[in-house]
C-alpha cells in the first residue's frame, strides 16, 4: 500500500512538473522592470522585486533606471519593457490618451499587476507664516511642488487649484525647496513623498512647522475628481504632530504588458503575493504590497493572469477591470 502511494505521488509530481515545463513554452527567458532614478524608492523596490521573481521562477530579470512613472507606462505599452512601476495619476492620463509622452494616443497595452504602496500628499509651512489650513493659503502664495513634472508637480498643483488655491509655482529638489522655505523665499511645500519626509524632519528640528490637514469636505472633493485614495498621516510620522492628519494619497502599482502570457503573469503575481516578507526586506514600503489593496485601482485593467490569481484567492475584481 505504501509502495503504491509512493508511486502514485511520484507520478503526480512528474505530471505536474511536465505541465509546468509545457506551460513555460511561451514564457520570456528574461525580463526588465522599468523603475526610476538611481537609488530612488522605485529603483530599490523594482530591482529587488525583479531579483525575487527571477530567483523564484528561474529566469533572468533586472531593474532598469528610467524617467519614472510616465516613461515606464510608455515603455511597457510600447513593448520595450515587460514590467514597470507607475502611479495611478499618470496611468489615468495614459488610458485617456492624455500622456504628455504620447498625446492623443490611448495606451492600451499596459495592465495592472499588483499594488505597491501609497504616496501621501502632505503640505508643510513654517508656523511663522500663519498658514494653518488649505482654505487659509493666501492668493499668490509661493508653493514648491518638487521637481518639474514630478507627481507632486503634476497632481498636487491640480488638486490645490481644484480647491480654489491661487499660487505661484516653484520647482526644485525637496532639499532646495526646504532651504528656500527656511530662508523665506518660499511659503509652502506641497509634498508627494514617502513618510517620514527627511527634509521636514530636519526643518522641524530647527524651527516650528505646520503640517496642514485636509478638511473632510476638501478630502471628499478631491477623491471625487482625482485618482487618489483617502489617507491619514500618522502622528508618528513627525514630532510636530499630536494626532493623525487627514490627507490623500496616490497609489503606486506594478504594471505588465497586457500581451504577456497569462500563465507567466499568474506565476509572477503568485510569487509576489506569497513572498511579502522577502519584499519587505527589499524596502519597508512593501508592507502594503498585499492583495487587499487591489481595490485602490479603478484606472488600469488588470492583466488576466493577475486577475486569475486574485479571484482564485477570494479577491473580487469587477469584470470591467479585467483585460
TrEMBL record:
Keyword Signal among record annotations: yes
SUPFAM superfamilies assigned to the protein according to its UniProt record, in alphabetical order: Periplasmic binding protein-like II
Presence of keyword Signal: yes
Sorted UniProt keywords: Signal
InterPro entries, sorted: TRAP_TAXI (IPR011852)
Signal peptide: 1-22
Name this polypeptide is given: C4-dicarboxylate ABC transporter substrate-binding protein
Biological source species: Halomonas heilongjiangensis
Source species taxonomy: Bacteria, Pseudomonadati, Pseudomonadota, Gammaproteobacteria, Oceanospirillales
Amino acid at each position: 500500500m505504501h509502495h503504491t502511494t509512493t508511486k502514485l505521488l511520484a507520478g503526480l509530481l512528474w505530471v505536474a512538473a511536465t505541465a509546468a515545463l509545457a506551460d513555460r513554452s511561451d514564457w520570456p527567458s528574461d525580463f526588465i522592470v522599468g523603475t526610476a532614478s538611481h537609488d530612488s524608492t522605485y529603483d530599490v523596490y523594482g530591482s529587488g522585486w525583479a531579483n525575487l521573481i527571477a530567483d523564484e521562477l528561474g529566469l533572468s530579470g533586472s531593474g532598469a533606471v528610467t524617467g519614472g512613472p510616465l516613461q515606464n507606462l510608455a515603455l511597457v505599452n510600447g513593448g520595450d519593457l515587460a514590467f514597470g512601476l507607475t502611479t495611478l495619476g499618470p496611468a489615468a492620463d495614459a488610458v485617456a490618451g492624455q500622456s504628455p509622452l504620447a498625446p492623443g494616443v490611448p495606451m492600451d497595452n499596459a495592465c495592472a499587476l499588483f499594488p505597491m504602496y501609497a504616496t501621501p500628499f502632505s503640505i508643510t509651512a513654517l508656523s511663522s507664516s500663519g498658514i494653518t489650513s488649505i482654505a487659509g493659503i493666501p492668493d499668490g502664495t509661493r508653493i514648491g511642488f518638487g521637481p518639474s513634472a514630478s507627481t507632486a508637480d503634476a497632481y498636487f498643483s491640480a488638486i490645490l487649484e481644484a480647491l480654489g488655491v491661487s499660487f505661484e509655482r516653484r520647482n526644485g529638489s525637496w532639499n532646495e525647496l526646504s532651504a528656500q522655505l527656511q530662508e523665506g523665499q518660499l511659503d509652502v511645500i506641497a509634498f508627494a513623498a514617502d513618510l517620514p519626509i527627511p527634509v521636514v524632519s530636519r526643518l522641524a528640528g530647527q524651527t516650528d512647522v505646520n503640517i496642514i490637514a485636509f478638511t473632510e469636505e476638501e478630502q471628499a472633493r478631491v477623491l471625487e475628481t482625482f485618482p487618489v485614495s483617502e489617507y491619514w498621516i500618522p502622528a508618528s510620522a513627525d514630532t510636530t504632530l499630536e494626532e493623525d492628519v487627514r490627507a490623500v494619497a496616490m497609489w503606486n502599482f506594478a504594471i505588465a504588458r497586457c500581451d504577456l502570457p497569462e500563465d507567466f503573469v499568474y506565476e509572477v503575481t503568485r510569487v509576489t503575493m506569497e513572498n511579502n516578507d522577502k519584499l519587505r526586506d527589499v524596502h519597508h514600503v512593501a508592507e502594503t504590497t498585499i492583495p487587499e489593496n487591489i481595490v485602490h485601482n479603478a484606472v488600469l485593467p488588470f492583466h488576466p493572469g493577475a486577475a486569475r490569481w486574485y479571484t482564485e484567492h477570494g479577491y473580487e475584481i469587477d469584470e470591467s477591470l479585467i483585460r
